[in-house]
Design a protein that fits this description.
- This protein has 276 residues and is α/β, with parallel strands linked by helices.
- The protein has a single domain, classed as TIM Barrel, CATH 3.20.20.
- The chain is 37% helix and 18% strand.
- The chain has 10 helices and 9 strands.
- β7, α8 and β8 form a beta-alpha-beta unit.
- The radius of gyration is 19 Å and the shape is globular.
């Protein structure tokens, strides 16, 4: 049997996707540590408060994921101080066992990263001053441990110019497969020198029957994109929003070694079965 570190830390890389994470309260320290403990790479969606603190939060307001009071729940994060955000519980809505979790500030997580060179972190850009982010990265020397992700090539390029050591990932939505394929083709035909990874979203094809390729984006297109990226020295990452063993096995058989998943623990169990 292949050893754990050979499978998950060297062969297969996976991101614990936050916005749809079904196992932990998203964008919390609990979720970050959970991914690291499982051998994966946590993701943090990043925004900036009015007093300049970069925090982990997907939405523009605290309404969905915290117990912010009615008077504050619809206020933009960019108009709130970090002290205000810290007053609200970011775990209780997910489950009572997570009561007390708070919206994390990125500097705290960077401190931990700086002490553990083997750990990595995805930063999914929402609304942050990139120069402030670059300054914070430089302060803790964690550039090589970071993957900056966004769906705008321009923002990835801007981050790469500010901190060349940071890896950049362009994610491309797959809800409309023709749009995904057109966007990906345009990137491959253009200048991709400021990118390190391209992520394709794999959304279920509702008409697919058991035993068939599960996703809307054709399997042949995924395989061809993998080959083209490898020729350019880039990596392909896929985000299968739903998966069974067979689906992950197919992707692994194609040679894909980078994933984003909403169910980290279950994904790790599938990997274990594949490599047994």
């Amino acid at each position: 049997m292949v050893l754990r570190e050979e499978i998950w830390w060297k062969s297969v890389k996976w991101q614990a996707h936050q916005n749809s994470n079904s196992e932990m309260p998203e964008n919390t320290l609990a979720a970050v540590n959970y991914a690291w403990e499982l051998g994966g790479i946590p993701e943090l969606d990043i925004r900036q408060t009015v007093d300049g603190t970069i925090v982990g939060l997907h939405d523009a307001t605290p309404e969905r994921t915290t117990n912010a009071p009615a008077a504050d729940k619809d206020k933009l994060v960019s108009t709130l101080t970090y002290e205000q955000l810290c007053a609200w519980d970011a775990g209780i809505k997910f489950g009572e066992q997570f009561q007390g979790e708070r919206i994390p500030d990125l500097e705290h997580i960077f401190k931990v990263l700086a002490e553990h060179a083997e750990r990595e972190l995805y930063l999914d850009y929402k609304s942050v001053d990139l120069e402030s982010l670059a300054e914070l990265i430089g302060k803790y020397g964690v550039a090589r441990q970071l993957i900056f992700a966004h769906n705008d090539h321009g923002n990835c390029s801007a981050m790469k110019r500010l901190v060349p050591e940071v890896r950049t990932m362009l994610w491309i939505s797959g809800r409309v497969p023709e749009t995904l394929m057109r966007t990906c083709t345009e990137v491959l035909e253009g200048d991709s020198s400021t990118l390190d990874i391209i992520q394709l979203h794999l959304v279920d094809e509702e008409a697919a029957t058991e035993g068939e390729w599960r996703y809307r984006v054709p399997q042949s297109y995924v395989a061809d994109t993998l080959a083209q990226l490898e020729e350019r020295g880039l990596e392909l990452e896929v985000l299968p929003f739903h998966f069974a063993d067979r689906d992950v096995f197919e992707l692994l058989d194609m040679g894909i070694r980078r994933y984003a998943v909403d169910e980290p623990k279950r994904f790790v169990e599938v990997l274990q079965r594949y490599f047994e």
